[in-house]
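Quick sanity check, RING-type domain-containing protein:
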Amino acid sequence: MAESTTPHNQDAPLRECTVCLENHPASRYPGRRLTEKCAHHPQSACVDCVSASIRVEVHSATPCDTTCPDCKAPLDYEVVEAHADAETFERYRQASLTKTITEAGNFSWCPLGCGSGQFHDDDNDNGSLSIVLCLGCKKQYCRRHQVAWHDEHTCAEYDAFLADPEGFLLLRAGDPRRRQQRDLDLASQQVRDAEHQFDLLLAGVRRDREEAGRRAELERLERQAALERARREAEARRKAEEEEAERQRQARLLQARKRAEEDATQAAFANRSFSYPVKPCPGCKAMIEKRGGWLDFLLLLCIFRFLCCPLMFPVGYMVGEIDLLTTSAVCVVTTCIVSH
């Protein structure tokens, strides 16, 4: 906050008010902080601005909520009394008193408009202490309902009247025909309500049945689809098994045909006379006739290579296999019965 001096009195420093922004001497500021919660300089707002702020707040809708004009901390009763004018403080005092006694549990204002209020004993269970004699206007009023005292009714009866005015008045009138008509009207209303509830229940049952039917149809379709999938899978397995069986049958036929051909060949060899010795191949048992040449044989029928001993033909025994890469002289046999 800026400080300055005037030309007339160089020894009196001035301070700028944070509210009106005017420069004032220290005497125009509060001598201490307005509240203990104020953290600012005690001479931040001048006394004129403090008084004006209190006056505006007291004449507002919440006259008891007075605050510091600088930091808005709540002001105590003594601070308001020290800085407010007489009319403002009297209004503030009345508002504070009204707030205090209103917050008390055993105090009530007269609802008949006289502006008076008073303390009284607590109410009891049957409401006999709800009747209050106002000390201001000398009239009786009901503290519980805040109306003029209902001398013809108890508080419980008045509650019944507030809950159902027509029914209460009919019962009090004692007219049996009107009571009967009212009872009939109530019964008719109850029947209509029951019919409405029944319609709602019936509609709910109908919805439940429709939903159950939809669920059953969906389950039926799902079962049908599952059966169709199972049928297709079984058909595919059956076809695969038939194809595998046919493949095995063809393989067996081919093997039987080969055995028959071999048997026929062996029979042909057995029935044929050879001028040279004939021996079976050690690999595929095909008959080989050696008429001379190399001792190294490669039979292309089974790609089996062997070396025969000079005594094999006509004596007939093998001496073992040899490596094709290390043998320069090779006799290749291309048929079941070939001459070397």
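Posting the structure with no commentary besides this: Residues 16 and 23 are 4 Å apart (CA to CA).
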